[in-house]
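From the shared-data thread, chain only:
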Amino acid sequence: MVLELYLDLLSQPCRAIYIFAKKNGIPFQLRTVELLKGQHLSDAFAQVNPLKKVPAMKDGDFTLTESVAILLYLTHKCKVPDFWYPQDLQARACVDEYLAWQHTTLRRSCLRALWHKVSLEGWEGHSPSSVWHSPCNGWVLTRTDAVWVFSSWPVPQYRCTT
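Structure, as tokens:
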């Protein structure tokens, strides 16, 4: 049975799953759920995910939601290269730590800036650049660079590179 991925590629978490599956040659059937058309709110989609959110995945009778959970499931099921999700317990814990951090800190902060840029640009007195360069975003981006991108902490061989 083919893996089914319920995604809207406008969604960053959905794109992460889509790109990961494509990059690793994981066979799947794309089931597009268009958020802007409200397809995620339908009774039919509620049968897949009662929370009516994307992404969602079906693997036979097994259903899973939430992007990080789906990505981790795919790393285990599909035996992807070790650099995606290392076998070493401490290196894997560092990946888990980053996944938790980025999802609750980095994504939220950048999403706020994107929302202001897309939805409010051109309104009188609104400056999208002031949102992007707000103290909160500055703190997040500084920590991202200092800790996750350019640092050798905690596991140098698994750090991000630009």
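The chain has a mean pLDDT of 80.
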